[in-house]
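Repro case for the chain-ordering regression, as requested:
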Amino acid sequence: MTLVDHSTSPDLVGPPHSHGPRRDAAPLLPDPEPVRVLGTEAAAAFDPELARDLHRRLVLARRFNQQATTLTRQGRLAVYPASTGQEACQVGAAMVLRPQDWLFPSYRDTLAVVARGVRPIDALTLMRGHAHCGYDPYEHRIAPLSTPLATQAAHAVGLAHAARLRAAEDPARDERLVALALVGDGATSEGDFHEALNFAAVLGAPVVFLVQNNGYAISVPLARQCAAPTLAHKAVGYGMVGRLVDGNDALAVHQVLSDAVEHARSGRGPVLVEAITYRLDAHTNADDATRYRSAGEVEAWRARDPLTLLDAHLRARGLLDDAGAAELARAAEELAGRIRAEFEAAPEPDPATLFAHVYAEPTSQLRAQAAELSARLAAEAAEDPDGDPYHLDGDGFDADALTADGRGTEGLGGAA
Amino acid sequence: MVGALNAALRDCLREDPAVHVLGEDVGALGGVFRVTDGLAAEFGSARCLDTPLAEAGILGTAIGMAMYGLRPVVEMQFDAFAFPAFEQLVSHVAKMRNRTGGRVGLPITIRVPYGGGVGGVEHHSDSSEAYYAHTPGLHVVTPATVADGYGLLRAAIASDDPVVFLEPKRLYWSSDPADAEAPASRAPAAGAPAAGLSASGAGPGTGRGAREGVAPIGRAVVRRAGTSATLITYGPSLPICLAAAQAAKADGLDLAVVDLRSLVPFDDETVCAAVRATGRAVVVHEASGFGGVGAEIAARVGERCFHHLAAPVLRVTGYDIPYPPPMLEKHHLPSVDRVLDAVARLQWEQ
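-- result from build under test --
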């Protein structure tokens, strides 16, 4: 039985009242296809010097990945999550930032950290197992490599928000900075990713989120991770612009990221960029990628290697010849040799770093524990002078040195 | 205590432009317990920021703000509602100074209303201090008096290290007794207007802390001197212990009461001196006993005061059960009777 005939009754209440401004979703939507430059008409118009610069950095980046992987096999790195195949994203992320900007990398982004100017040995201390972060975040404006997925995205939002607060209080101090947060496709499933994007959009914070979608969260393919049309579409749900780009097209990555960074810098809010790329190596040296992906799939992506694509473009335009390539190869070998030399010269990790900097001022309990370790190391050194890696000569540490400021940074290699 | 906490926030916001308050409902509403009442009106919605409802996002945002030089004061609405922020707290807040070789400190205060005894329904009465105290890199403090509510919060916000500031919900509406031994005697009675607070001048203390109304982090305080046995407690259980000491007088027992105030750093010196003076000790807290702060205290006292002890250190705690429904919580919480029963078991016959 029908109590009210809706087909004839007038609309008595009208539509629901809006709880906030309704926004048109269309301007936020990513393009239906990933933005590409290489292989399109736009390629001819791309700044040739910038293209050559990108290529040079890509060559060095690839060599860095190879050298780091080798160091892992030699046992000199505890682990290395290679970004082989993702170098266009790594290099592009570092290149589009200005000095006042901040980078918030995740654990696979060592290369982006190096590309922004950190010494390889300092960027790799986390992977060496010597110290959690070997560079000064304030010197380089790079947050520590974040292993807990997507957690650093919220830090990027807070820092960018704080910069705008400070700028509002004192326009003379306005740095017009942008924070760029790097995450992978797997991290987009984390609650912290959602919360960071939501906070960024609500606060209008100048943040760019770059998702390097390499298709797998270790072994789980994207289809089991996400049912959204694309990861870039998630932006619309937060009210921010989403962009989709070919992550292996270095020119496109640079262009889209540059646009995104300047969009955020101009006060128009955050941007989510999804770069479609592929991890040509396994997740880490401890991973066996053959268990979850086919050789054919890897080969298909190898044909779309960002370095190969850009190489072909430069040669076709006459911007690169064999002599230029040989010169680049020499520069790459020089980088690899420098990394090896830095590893040779790197000191052993210093036990003094254990107790330093747990707090601004060590607690009495930490002082006691530091003294205990110092005494034990001294006793061991006295028993076996040849096995004394810290050159204590039986004297031990000054217990205060184990907790004091100056001593604590020596082992990090980046304090000088 | 709500008034004292509000006054501390107000004074910090006035004195230091780097101080920012953020959390859920801290703006127009003034927080569900009104601790941030009036702050958005006085300092603006940017410095007392209503955030989206997401605790990990709140704390993660605060981390970034602190990295840029601000001093965020985060409000977690309830003890159990702070758990979504646990990863940000443990993996970043607690570790940032250490993992960056001292280069990046995070002066963040994380205010958490905690504990039961207020008739709260499920997820509104947890005692979460052991999780925080177990995490190196965090300071963990909890006021039990109105004076410390003001003084400790001032100290927490002034600290260059992250501080988890646990506010005993059931003491929110408390006022200090006139004869309380309040080390930070400048702080106001609950509900006192901020102007009255600022005009109240220095207390009798001569130290910097007393003059500025800041209670030092890391120092316990003896709330009641005694000769028979020592009760060691903090936060919501302090009034229970003081009442138990009062009641014990009828049995001819003179109980000392130590208020820890700071769980991390832990004040071994004050606690051990108070235990050695009596030779008997009972630790009282309402969190579950197993793996709790009381276990740590009993171990520390045992390690340091063994030859002064006439009996094992006993604990009176909440049972090892999920926090009960409000109509049953009175059985779970330490009571005067349970404290006195424990005191009676301190091997007086020997």
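Ordering looks correct now. DSSP finds 14 helices and twelve strands in chain B.
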